[in-house]
Amino acid sequence: MGNTPDAHETHAWVLHPDIKTDYSARAATDALAEAVSLAHALPGLEVMGETIVRLPRAHPGKLFGKGKIAELAELFKAAEVELVLIDGHVSPVQQRNLEKDWGVKILDRTGLILEIFSDRARTREGVLQVEMAALSYQRTRLVRAWTHLERQRGGLGFVGGPGETQIESDRRAIDIQLVRLQKQLDKVVKTRELHRSARAKVPYPIVALVGYTNAGKSTLFNYMTGAKVLAKDMLFATLDPTMRAVKLPSGMDVILSDTVGFISDLPTELVASFRATLEEVTAAQLVVHVRDIAHPETAEQAQDVNTILETLGLDRDVPRIEMWNKSDILDPSALEALQNAAERSDDVFITSALTGAGVPEFLDAVSRRLTPDKTQSELVLGFDEGRARAWLFEQGLVRDEQQTQEGFSLSVSWTARQKKAFSDQFGPKLVSGS
């Protein structure tokens, strides 16, 4: 099996175990649909079929019962299946036993998401973080052929590909690799910190787009910036934060940040390793939560996003607004009901990033949220305070100026942040009279 253009696509089957004892589980049909979308997000796979397997409980050795294993074996044989994607956690023992019984490769939810992340990561940091997450995951698996340490292609080697070499990877080799990758990542993070400190000097507020994967963040980002960011109807289309300076219709300049989509049950390895990728969110002055309002589980997706934002330590004082996206695919009655609900909140906007409907009103709201209250002050500057006077004019804060015998009398209009910056640079005595 491989991903070369002349090789056939890997025949895959998606299974969702619907375990009765798992009371926190989502609706099986919605969970299966998302799992199939995950499968389609990985190049080189052809999904031959999908099945919900209802279980009273998970069997420790093989996950499924004997009868179901035999029934599925016939199904996979008839469809010439080479890879079975199981939407859930599969233990190393269960994986080994099922691969032996079915004669196929098994990939659980974590392994599949890692494969997708590896295929999509573009920045150096993103690649390193995925590699570390994959190694942490692999360390929990039984020792078996490991192609990632010497891979000659994109991807992690879980699915298979051309140029693979069979390298036996024990835990010591993985640990050595993890230490090496951590050192490289530390260097990259230091570079990012330099970039961030440089950005902090830019007087533009950061607006971070967050949301469940496939909610339409990249489409909105492209609409606002004209950038050609990958915006496809597939999960995890964006994996590295993309930042652009944007001038809003109001004339305000902001930095717009498009982030990786969140997903329920994100592997713990990835939550940890992608915290740095998502930390742009914690530096934002405004967080825009983009929701696919037409999705049957939009409320559950929103809860997953809010949970991850809390995990990231996002300050509750950072303003947030919700953009209820994909209104163009709602039927009129559903749209009307949502419009009535949105009208009761100042923080909710119904839009379609695809058609642009509702986006102007949304952008006006972004400008309003980022326009802080200003206060008026009267300053008296001596003739020797030329630098301070020049700074006020450069920032566009002076409303009126009169020359006096002692110097200059200025009326200024500024935000608390601008006032503090002036005080820090030129001394509090200059503003004490204000």
From TrEMBL:
Which family does this protein fall into? Answer: Belongs to the TRAFAC class OBG-HflX-like GTPase superfamily. HflX GTPase family.
What name has this protein been given in UniProt?
GTPase HflX
> What domain of life does the UniProt record list for this protein's source?
Bacteria
- What organism does the UniProt record list as the source? Planktomarina temperata RCA23
Q: Which residues form the Hflx-type G domain?
A: 205-374
Any Pfam family hit: GTP-bdg_N
Any GO CC annotation of this UniProt entry = cytoplasm
Which SUPFAM superfamilies does its entry note?
Answer: P-loop containing nucleoside triphosphate hydrolases
Q: Which UniProt keywords apply?
A: Cytoplasm, GTP-binding, Magnesium, Metal-binding, Nucleotide-binding
User: Gene3D superfamilies under this entry?
Assistant: 6.10.250.2860, GTPase HflX, N-terminal domain (3.40.50.11060), P-loop containing nucleotide triphosphate hydrolases (3.40.50.300)
Q: Which cofactor does it need?
A: Mg(2+)
Function per UniProt: GTPase that associates with the 50S ribosomal subunit and may have a role during protein synthesis or ribosome biogenesis.
Q: Quaternary state and partners of this protein?
A: Monomer. Associates with the 50S ribosomal subunit.
Q: Where in the cell is it found?
A: Cytoplasm
List positions binding Mg(2+): 218, 238
Enumerate the PANTHER family for this protein. Answer: GTP-BINDING PROTEIN 6-RELATED, GTP-BINDING PROTEIN HFLX
Question: Which of this chain's residues are annotated to bind GTP?
Answer: 211-218, 236-240, 258-261, 325-328, 352-354
Task: Output the Gene Ontology terms for molecular function.
Answer: GTP binding; GTPase activity; metal ion binding; ribosome binding
Indicate yes or no for the key word Cytoplasm.
yes
